[in-house]
Each structure stands twice: as structure tokens, then as C-alpha cells.
Amino acid sequence: MTNAFTYACRDCEGMEACPGSVTAETQEEVWRLMELHAQMAHNEDPAEWTQETRDYLATLIRPVSA
């Protein structure tokens, strides 16, 4: 039974060395945490992510049992 979602930065192409990961109850929470991580750890501005980038990142969010 899925009751949480997770994202591991190391699964993203080019970020294999990053240990950052998040797990939350909803996908929306995961997105917010991913964006915060990108800002703090990688100096990225998620507002500048293209739809293509967002679509790719969405494939890296996985359902998990917590």
C-alpha cells in the first residue's frame, strides 16, 4: 500500500554524488521539498525549470510504504 512518496537527488542525471532525498505523504509535499533542496544544495532556481525538466523530475518521484 502506498502511503508516501520519495525522491532521491542521486537518481537525477548528473546528480549521482548528491545524498539528498525526501519522503513525504503527498507528491505536492515532495515537490516543495525538491525545490527547496535544489535551491539550497545546488543553487538552482526552480522557477527557471522548463516543463521538460519538471516532466523528467516527476518520473523520479516514487510511491513507497512508510
From TrEMBL:
Superkingdom of origin: Bacteria
Annotated Pfam families: DUF1059
UniProt name for this protein: DUF1059 domain-containing protein
The species this protein was found in: Aliisedimentitalea scapharcae
